[in-house]
Amino acid sequence: MIFRKLIDRSDERPVKDVPAHIIIILVIAFLCQIYWSSSKPLSAINIKKLPEPPSQIESQLFGLGDSIMISKIFMLWLQAFDNQPGVSVPFKNLDYDRVINWLERILALDPKGQYPLLAAGRIYGVVADDERKRQMLAFIYEQFSKDPNRRWPSMMHAIYVAKHRLKDYPLALKYAHAVAQQVTVKNIPSWVKQMEIYVLEDMGEIESARILIGGLLESGAITDAHELQFLQDRLDRLERENDTDKPVIP
Which uninterrupted H or E stretch holds 136? Predict the structure, then answer.
């Protein structure tokens, strides 16, 4: 009987029986609530500033000696820091010096980890602020030099950003040259160490590109037959283009 009473709503008044002025008051109150929430100044919201990362010793204590585990926790926390209660902080509004300090600490805890460098290039390095882009590229370049054989993939993205996003070809060439000189591991795609040639061509430095290819061919450092043929074909093409560009002397 009790259950039947609970589900029996035949005695409830339909919405149409509610006086019109009551409905109007409720609608106005709802709209006022929306307006108040949207017009609330950001200063009234407690936007937290990114703190400095814990020291190496403090980080080890937090992770109970498991540095890899705490590095992953720090990375997740840092990446989620922009989502704060009541507000989403744009990445470009973060203190990038402190972001870099956090990324450095995370890499120090897990030197083999690649994600901090990936985040630097593909998350914090793609904001609509060229200065912050450059900060992240400088960070990637510095960290790459500490372990080039493992961290070269992050430099590929740094070269792309420098060349296509910043239109800074000398910077892209600097990064490509660093890859060519510092990466010594054998099992990487051939185009990685040849990126310097591509950048020189994009810069219009055809003669420099020809000299570089010729040096690679004569050095004996390249032994793969397909790679040798590729470089030779590229050199032949550049020489043909160079001959075409020369003025015709009557």
Answer: helix 130-146
